[in-house]
Amino acid sequence: MPQASSSSSPATAAAPPPPQPAADPSPSAVPASEEALDPQTPAPPPQAQPEAVLTAAQKALRSKPTRPPEDSDKKNKKLKDVEISFPIVYGTISFWLGKKASEYNSHKWTVYVRSATNEDLSVIVKRVVFQLHPSFTNPTRVVEQPPFELSESGWGEFEIAITLYFHSDVCEKRLDLFHQLKLYPEEDTGPQSTKKPVVVETYDEIVFPEPTEAFFQRVQNHPAATVPRLPPGITLPPPGPMELVPHEKKRGDTKDHPLSQWFSNFSEADELLKLAAARQQVQAHIAKLRRQLSMIDGMPQQSKAVSGARSE
């Protein structure tokens, strides 16, 4: 995974400290074993417990270990030679506060993880943890529902650690990303402006090899997923209605996000257009260099002709 450079100047804390949870004064907060440990309190006499009445089926279950149903085994079965990928984008957008800026509070910024096509990532992502600079109050921020983002304000640039946790049927491992917060524009882009933010985004793809059948069925028609065709010999029943998928009941895409106008477009069509434009620029530059070389090659011939005319 791509990593940003090391952190630079620290930022200031911008949020009030979170309230501390009050202790539970109810007797339930005290362990029941404390009364038995008190020598002043006599232990109650043991009481005979009535024997539970069990049916023959319940007695059989008590004596034999239970096996998971066959449907559960099938759902957890992994599909070999199959990979599911989710293109993602993570980055920051920062705005200069202009006249409202102070020495220790000059920018407002947002850090986020989104789908490259602005679809709902909660189909695979359970929660995202953002690790801010230690100077912030509560620097470890947990976001458990989309959009997976947080906004803060400060004056310094630093590296933000972003950790993605997935649903149990997706992946048991976490994914660590790192992004360098950038507040100030490059010199060639002009001075700071309150209307034009500094946008830094990174494109990447999360690849899940050998997904389970349940995971494959759940996301095979999801617009954020890149799902291949199954190898020959593997057939799965069609997925159920989209309304029954638990992680898609609530809309969590970023298509109508307030900052979507500043999002970079990482679609294949857009990349092809950028490559074509870059190719034209390279070809024009090559043609210009060839003209300059031809002019340089012609200069010695002219000087030789002049010198020959003088010698005669």
Automatic annotation (TrEMBL):
GO cellular component, one term: nucleus
Keywords: Nucleus, Transcription, Transcription regulation
Biased composition (Pro residues): 15-24
UniProt domain YEATS: residue ranges: 78-222
Alphabetical list of Pfam families matching this protein: YEATS (PF03366)
Gene Ontology biological-process entries: regulation of DNA-templated transcription
InterPro entries recorded: YEAST_sf, YEATS, YEATS_dom
Subcellular location: Nucleus
First-listed, main subcellular location of the protein, grouped into a coarse class: nucleus
PROSITE patterns noted in UniProt: YEATS
Chain spans, region Disordered: 1-78
UniProt keyword Hydrolase present: no
UniProt protein name: YEATS domain-containing protein
